[in-house]
Specification:
Structural class: mainly alpha
Shape: globular
Helix content: 40-55%
Largest sheet: none
Order of helices and strands: HHHHH
Oligomer: single chain
């Protein structure tokens, strides 16, 4: 394989992802107000009754997570509502907002020049360290 350089969003079609790539409970609870209750049987053979409806609700919830929630995270960071001090604090802030660490690469796409220089560098450095550590372990 050739190495990949720059910002990348990796899309995989691995089977069985519905068993291990779950939404965080913090987000599911908040999402009930926006989308309604989510079926735990979405995208499974168990959820054949109203599958299209349940799958669409989970797709919408995931879309909200990957756009609105992650964007709101960076808005709060740029407005000084919160600060990221270290990797533990980054993981804690992601968890409180219901964002899985596997979305860290997607989250870095939203980093922009609105963050103060030191905060941007710190966040990018911590994020790359977290991603590398998770890949190695």
């Amino acid at each position: 394989r050739d190495p990949v350089y720059g910002n990348v969003v990796w899309i995989s079609d691995r089977s069985g992802r519905h068993l291990y790539e779950l939404l965080r409970p913090e987000f599911v609870k908040r999402c009930e107000k926006l989308v309604g209750p989510l079926s735990s049987d979405a995208f499974t053979g168990f959820g054949l009754h109203d599958a299209a409806k349940h799958n669409a609700e989970v797709r919408r919830a995931t879309e909200i997570l990957l756009t609105d929630e992650i964007h709101r995270f960076f808005e709060d960071l740029s407005q000084g509502v919160m600060m990221i001090l270290n990797g533990h604090h980054l993981r804690q802030q992601f968890a409180e907002r219901g964002i899985n660490m596997r979305h860290l690469g997607q989250a870095l796409v939203y980093t922009d020049d609105n963050l103060p220089g030191h905060s941007l560098w710190t966040l990018q450095s911590l994020a790359v360290t977290e991603m590398a550590t998770r890949r190695v372990v």
